[in-house]
């Protein structure tokens, strides 16, 4: 009878922790399927930019557009693994029908010289994106230097539609920038680590329960 409470406590704790770990494994399966769907969408055959793109329906839509690449740039301070601090460059693309869109043309390292260029007709292949990078702590832009990609605000600053093409390829490319295409790599997927944490805690709980029962046995021996 003296072992009943610690055994019950141990069983309930282990059951809760194992169920949380199992739930995270189900979340991992769901997230992997979602990422696979996003990757398939990103790499699909490009289409023309829709007349009225929807930020939810058309997110990551692969597109191709021809037009005049502008020279009015906004630079966004960012960081890339194994590269360091960079400036992403957002500029304009004026299509033949007069529509003006935003283009994330790529990046250069902070401190690299800015290459002079003229307006030029180019073909841009990439993906539509409405990044969610701003919050209440994001500093306001400092002139042409921004600290997050805010599509509506950037569109207002450059006089374009609130539509951003993140370039995969610009041909010809007068910017000299390395493109930074959309990918699923930036989407968090930590469910396996969470699952291992919960299962590890379950093992610790089991060890603590066994130790408690051993202590009770010694006291009553």
From TrEMBL:
Q: Which InterPro entries match?
A: Surf1/Shy1, Surf1/Surf4
What the entry lists under Pfam families is as follows: SURF1
Keyword Transmembrane on entry? yes
Q: What is its main location?
A: membrane
Q: How does it sit in the membrane?
A: Multi-pass membrane protein
Where does it localize? Cell membrane; Membrane
User: Protein name, please?
Assistant: SURF1-like protein
